[in-house]
From TrEMBL, chain A:
One of the Pfam families matching this protein, by short name: SoxD
Superkingdom of origin: Bacteria
Listed EC numbers: 1.5.3.1
Lineage: Bacteria, Pseudomonadati, Pseudomonadota, Alphaproteobacteria, Acetobacterales
Record keywords, A-Z: Oxidoreductase
Class of the enzyme per the UniProt entry, highest EC level: oxidoreductase
Keyword Oxidoreductase: yes
GO molecular function terms attached to this record: sarcosine oxidase activity
Record-linked InterPro entries: SoxD (IPR006279), SoxD_sf (IPR038561)
Record protein name field: Sarcosine oxidase subunit delta
One GO biological process term: tetrahydrofolate metabolic process
TrEMBL record, chain B:
Domain FAD dependent oxidoreductase stretches: 33-380
Keyword annotations from UniProtKB, A to Z: Cytoplasm, Nucleotide-binding, Oxidoreductase
Compartments it resides in: Cytoplasm
GO molecular function per UniProt: nucleotide binding; sarcosine oxidase activity
Protein name per the record: Sarcosine oxidase subunit beta
Amino acid sequence: MRIPCPHCGARGVEEFLYTQDAGVTRPKDGGAEPTKEWTDYVYMRDNLKGPRKEYWYHSAGCHAWLVVTRDVSTHEILKVELP
Amino acid sequence: MRYSAVSVIREALRGHKGWKPAWRKATPAPSYDVVIIGGGGGGLATAYYLAKNHNVGRIAVLEKGWLGNGNIGRNTTIIRSNYGLPGNTPFYELSMKLWEGLEQDINYNAMVSQRGVFNIYHSDPQRDAYARRGNTMRLHGVDAELLDREQLRREIPFLDYDNARFPVQGALVQRRGGTVRHDAVAWGYARAASDRGVDIIENCEVTGIIQENGVVMGVETTRGRIGARKLGIAVAGSSSLLANMAGFRLPIESHVLQAFVSEGLKPLIDNVITFGAGHFYISQSDKGGLVFGGDIDGYNSYAARGNLPTVEDVCEGGVALMPMIGRARLLRSWGGIMDMTMDGSPIIDFSPVKNLFINAGWCYGGFKAVPAMGYCFAHLIANEAPHKVAAAYRLDRFAEGKLIDEKGVGAQPNLH
């Protein structure tokens, strides 16, 4: 798997760290009390087949955070954007 | 047909013409009392213990491919019960006890081999952590032994004891741990369940879950509609896909884990050894191949294959621990899809849909748990109450903050 970094060009996956699902949105405020909204954000995932947006960090390269759209069924990289 | 020394000799004299298929190839009936989705270790063990221990009527197991093609046939075959947290220790010890009696119980040679699991430690703090885990195990009646460097060297002389970065200081040993022939577990449970009247239906993929007013009624499959009074999901790796069909979400991400086998070698490693400074575990199969594995690749995947950097990383760990294997050639590697949960522990519980039960989230430790997951899931389905050793594996523990996080890394599935 190679990820085309907008700064560095296509690099092997060993240069990157996968961090998390970019399709979940952090609730705007609160968090002092546990709510269903926060439980869903922290723990619950769709986890379906097909394209998915995720955060990757180019740790052995330019240190940029990237939003990568990747098909989890085939490992095909469909799109790479800066967040 | 009951397997025994007599049956082996009789068939040898007859030219092996009298063996029957181990399980019936069933065709789906219009409905069952209990339908289990997933013909892997978990599903087959559940069906067997349902038929053996509980009076629930007609039972079917639906398998989308052929029996044993999923994770039950893709793992590194290790069994152990060296867990340290409440909720885990008694559960995995029940599993170990069931392994110890399994072959007599199901009349099948699963090649259960209690050859000992050695967890190597490389520093003083790691020794203290292992001693603590060993003490926890012993307080629960599980065997554990802490070896120092010289005791370990007498048993396993070939480690790189004086490695400059990660010197070997000793090991925590569970001698009752070991390996089991993984395919035989699937075949043995399938045969034993089939003999007790369970219909095992292969090449039957579930495409939808039928509900009426929040109550499960059955499933749509590639072989037609099958009614079910109760439905159990045991499809680790694909649990979220089934949950999606039923209209709820799980605290799970699917990740790929690779495993490896070397070319066949003469007997060399006669136990299970794990590297404490990296992630690497190894044993030798009866055919002579070194069977080993390491970390998951670290990104979500439904493709049952991984990438080369992980292959390199796992092999580096192995060579750092036992340099002698550096010249063995890799014969095969493969990937399986893991249900990685948000705390690294499994789920055996009711689902939000009535009469739909879920057995999921086994991360990459499901194989050792197969007998107990089947035993406890069968108990849950039949009695509609959790078995006492699996009572902590609740789906709502994430909302309640009652996580069981052995590694202590938080809600980050790729780190468990």
